[in-house]
Amino acid sequence: FREFSRTSCLLRCCSLPLPQGGVRPRYEVRNWPLYVLFLLSAALGHEVFYITILPGVHWHLDPFLCRRLVNTWTLVMYVGQVLKDLLKLPQYGLPSTHAMAATAIAFTLLLSATSRIQFQFEVGLMVAVVLSSLVCLSRLYTGMHSLLDVLCGVWLSAGLMLLTYPYWEAFDRFQLTSPLSPPVLVALPLFLSYNYPQLDHYSPTRADTTTILGVAAGCSVGYWTNAQLGVTFEPPHGALPVALPPLTAGALAAGLARYLVGAAVLLATRWAVRAASLRALFAWYSVEPGDAPSAARRREIEVPSKFLTYSVVGLVNAVLVNRLFLLLGIL
């Protein structure tokens, strides 16, 4: 019912005939600029965006900002995913986690960057509103969510940010300086992953949530490690807020090189750890090769594999990638 409803809604919104007799529908795009705009906006809520753009903030702007984004993103996404599966409303669409993530990322970056980077707040506010609005509207345009789903996502994300904002600095100090930070910030996400609400059917939301929690755990350990080593790659406090560097040809080339090298390292890490973890878990649970696709969805295999894979991705991003940039002379 869930997939049928989403497909039907998507086809109606794009002015497409419903599939009959298993024939693939022909897509009729009547407004190409609008179609491309919302297609790209929808991509802002997918895994490829998270594994490239969020680390990009770390590589190009300030690791402090990336840390704040990951913390807030993890909180709002976990709450949103759990609410979806607890409420079990039609299409499992309330609240829209795309709307929640877009709101949280845009406005966390705005609020956190004011003390770190020199920019006009009004311009930053306009950019945050435009980006989050594009993602929200893309969910309506593609028919994936109703207006209520999107509004609930925005309001819930705003409420969580409002409640937690006074404690951002305290949590930052705990995350970077406390000896309890690594065990607590690994054990808690792992516990939440294993105790994700059980459904009477398989849902990818558990895997998605475990992915997010794994990234948060790995990043937390990585940032704590950097703080203990005394190399955080953050601007010195006496120089804050820093001015944005001019967009010269050399700066653009170095930025592009960092992006390509960093993304390649993270994607290679993801592939290697995922393959190794699945192979080890399949051997441990005596999974036959023909049963691998279905076995990969079992909680005792899916959760540790996803969690380990993305914990290592987060750890590599926080600790190793910037050091690699230094070796290559592109930082």
Question: Your description of this structure?
Answer:
By secondary structure, this protein is mostly helical. The protein has one domain. Helix content is 72%, strand content 1%. The chain is built from 13 helices and two strands. A two-stranded parallel sheet has the order 1-2. α3 (47-60) packs antiparallel against α4 (63-87), α5 (97-113) runs parallel beside α7 and α9 (181-194) packs antiparallel against α10 (205-229). The longest helix is centred in the last third of the chain and has 36 residues, at 249-284. It is globular and about 55 Å long. It starts with a helix and ends with a helix. Residues 1-19 have low confidence and may be disordered.
Number of domains: 1
Number of strands: 2
**SS strand fraction:** under 5%
End-to-end Cα distance, whole Å, is 50 Å
Major beta sheet, strand line-up = 1-2
Cα-based radius of gyration, to the nearest Å: 21 Å
Mean pLDDT across every amino acid position: 86
Oligomer: single chain
Q: Count helical runs.
A: 13
**What is the overall shape?**
globular
Contiguous runs where pLDDT drops below 50 for at least 5 residues: 1-19
Proportion of helical residues = over 70%
- What is the succession of H and E elements? HHHHHEHHHHHEHHH
- Derived structural class: mainly alpha
For the biggest sheet, the summary is: 2 strands, parallel
